[in-house]
């Protein structure tokens, strides 16, 4: 399957997460996050971008249409009894109308990615209470 490598992880405002995802065929895709806000047990906010090996911002490697170079990601956590509600907001940041339209048209594929990630988190948390 796919393998994720973390090159840098600085969980602090202004800090960077720099990572690569390697496909079974050996191809790699790089990404980065620059953290803006961290409120423990409440909220994480970061700017997400596709990247290169050095951590620079790069265009979406698989999109033929103009894709936003940066996405504002907000993940909020709210206690609901013995469970936690996780709300994710992902919107284009510093983008033009064409980039925003491409982003909206691709929303379904992004939902699959987020769902897969959260499914993995659920399995991890259930195995590590």
Short structural description:
The chain has helices at residues 97-105, 107-127; strands at 3-9, 16-22, 28-39, 43-51, 57-58, 70-80, 83-93.
Walkthrough of the structure:
The chain is an alpha+beta fold. The protein is 23% helix and 46% strand. The chain has helices spanning 97-105, 107-127, and strands at residues 3-9, 16-22, 28-39, 43-51, 57-58, 70-80, 83-93. Strands 1, 2, 3, 4, 5, 6 and 7 form a 7-stranded antiparallel β-sheet that branches. The longest helix has 21 residues, at 107-127. The model has no long low-confidence stretch (mean pLDDT 89).
Main β-sheet: number of strands, strand sense, barrel status? Answer: 7 strands, antiparallel
Rounded to an integer in angstroms, the radius of gyration calculated over CA atoms is: 15 Å
Specify the oligomeric state: single chain
Helical content stands at 10-25%
SSE string, helix = H, strand = E?
Answer: EEEEEEEHH
Number of helices: 2
Instruction: Tell me the number of strands.
Output: 7
